[in-house]
């Protein structure tokens, strides 16, 4: 065991997220434990490890919840990893997916296979949220269905996919279509999935079928393997994926915590100002609320006017509410029409329009009636304001749900509203309203241009008071852009006039074929520079398809997409010097922002998560870009130098960030800081300081102070720190990043260092008393 103690409390000091897959197995993860321990990590945090669909690159498409994925090394490798982690004092946390299972390959999912084979008589019929009063529709067929549907291997076959045959439904020599009509399912055109599906999905993904974990027997069957690890002392924490998709999240979480006593956080996207339901027995969320605050506080509100004028002039929507509403209605009435029809059928007058309008009106992802009644009322009222003609149908929905908040209509409306918000806002509107994409992040609100220091401090103090062991995050496998991309983009709010001039110049020479994509493209180019043609093109194609303006996933416009493919090479050739020159001006301030937000996260309230690879500069974009292999060898070599006393410069290597991460994580291990006290600078540049103090258990006064630089480009333009000072709690103090003492500045022992001295080497300071 390493020098730090294996804490008996269930919450780790920090987590390090590993995205497992064929290129990073459980054995590979074990090989990283020494490096992570040296870094100061408190827990190994694993993506899902249960058996996923063949070829899965991420693990969220679980096909068999009863065993560890063989491709990851199987249960033996998992046990060995847990044993080695615990020997070093590291906790083990894993991600679980209770909401859905992969049915992409029926022969890989024994539960789904049995359901297809036996229909209502299958013991697994209760496991899935499916209507078995009619044949189960499986939307997989293309235009070649008549020729491609065959009998092979004793199964109904469509290309490489196999579907089971019910007993007694096939005689040798019979044609495939005749046999097909005898089954408990119907293979139908993929285009029918959005409007006619007979099973609930994850969002609009036909290959992910919803699981009924509200059924105690299904819960036991789907969680037995995970709970076995916990009973053996091999699992310390769980991250629950997509909790809002469940029928009754609160009931599920209470059932889970009754069996699992460890640290538990949920992937719950909170709107600004929203809190978790107080009845949930969890430590907190996975940290997107903290992400919004840490990025927002680095954004200069003075840049809003220039960026808004650019967007308006280019024809990019800036009315966030209207853009959201339009995108949500599209999601509800097209991609999720099956759910609209199912809900409408439950409540007279059976208005799909009213259901869609209601689901598009929520200010939060969902309610949990009776908790969240105020949000429910606001959504009903807003839907009525938008569509007075639907008032009777909306009143009927409201009355029905409020009179029976545990009934099927209430349950389905609530679990579907989160899908409408996510698909409409995150997956569509965020790619349309591209005024300033640093704000267009999971849990973000593009209408709120920045977060003031006062708001930041209030949110941090609230987190410490209400959910001190919640996870905090800056980058995840789901973020649209990594923390370092957003940190650089935040600088554009300080250079808004120069940036908007540059975009107008660049766009006149090499425009993308649609305004929202065009504005997103230039911001992406600056934020992720240097970036190759392939990465840039793939990201822009995904953004364009998600926006569903010039092209889409289901109706691709080949001419539009060809124009997108040609843009990257043209820009990287024709405008390289101009773009490089602009990036050079914002790169340094971007690094300052990266270090500041990292220090604030790693030593602030909550349990900080470090996404794989982000201990160095990481300029990743949305998945799959953020699942690229991590160069752990380089990180180990840099750790060697840091442990030998090297104080790295802030440069392209990112070693300064690694130095900060290592310092902060080890400081957390030693101090286990509590509480939260904002610290305020005094002087002409005081607004450029963001600082707070915390205390270790038993300390009578704060023994940790964290100092970061805010709006660094503006600070540089105005001549630096000048005579601004930061009064500190009683010391003496030492900066753990530099090893330099911070001596008292007054004869009576008061310590009020000048910021120019304190932040002379790095834009952040990690001060400990002593």
Question: Would you mind describing this structure in some detail?
Answer:
The chain is α/β, with parallel strands linked by helices and 770 residues long. The protein is built from 28 helices and 24 strands. Strands 16-15-14-5-2-1-18-17 form an eight-stranded parallel β-sheet. A hairpin with a 2-residue loop joins strand 9 (155-158) and strand 10 (161-163). Helix 12 (320-335) crosses helix 13, helix 19 (483-492) packs across helix 21 (515-528) and helix 21 (515-528) runs antiparallel to helix 22 (533-547). It is globular, with a radius of gyration of 27 Å. The two termini are 27 Å apart.
What layout of secondary structure does this protein have?
Blueprint: E1 15-18, H1 26-30, H2 33-39, E2 43-46, E3 50-52, E4 62-68, H3 74-87, E5 91-96, E6 100-102, H4 110-118, E7 136-141, H5 145-148, E8 149-152, E9 155-158, E10 161-163, H6 176-180, E11 185-189, H7 193-196, E12 201-202, E13 205-210, H8 216-231, E14 237-240, H9 249-259, E15 263-266, E16 284-285, H10 288-296, H11 304-314, H12 320-335, H13 337-344, H14 352-359, H15 373-386, H16 391-403, H17 408-426, H18 453-466, E17 471-472, H19 483-492, H20 496-509, H21 515-528, H22 533-547, H23 558-574, H24 576-603, E18 607-611, H25 632-643, H26 655-671, E19 674-679, E20 689-695, E21 704-709, H27 712-717, E22 733-735, E23 741-742, H28 755-758, E24 764-769
Parallel strand pairs: 1-2, 1-18, 2-5, 5-14, 7-11, 14-15, 15-16, 17-18
Antiparallel strand pairs: 3-4, 6-13, 8-9, 9-10, 12-13, 19-20, 20-21, 21-24, 22-23, 22-24
Helix pairs in contact: 11-20, 12-13, 12-14, 12-17, 13-14, 14-15, 15-16, 19-21, 19-24, 21-22, 22-23, 24-26
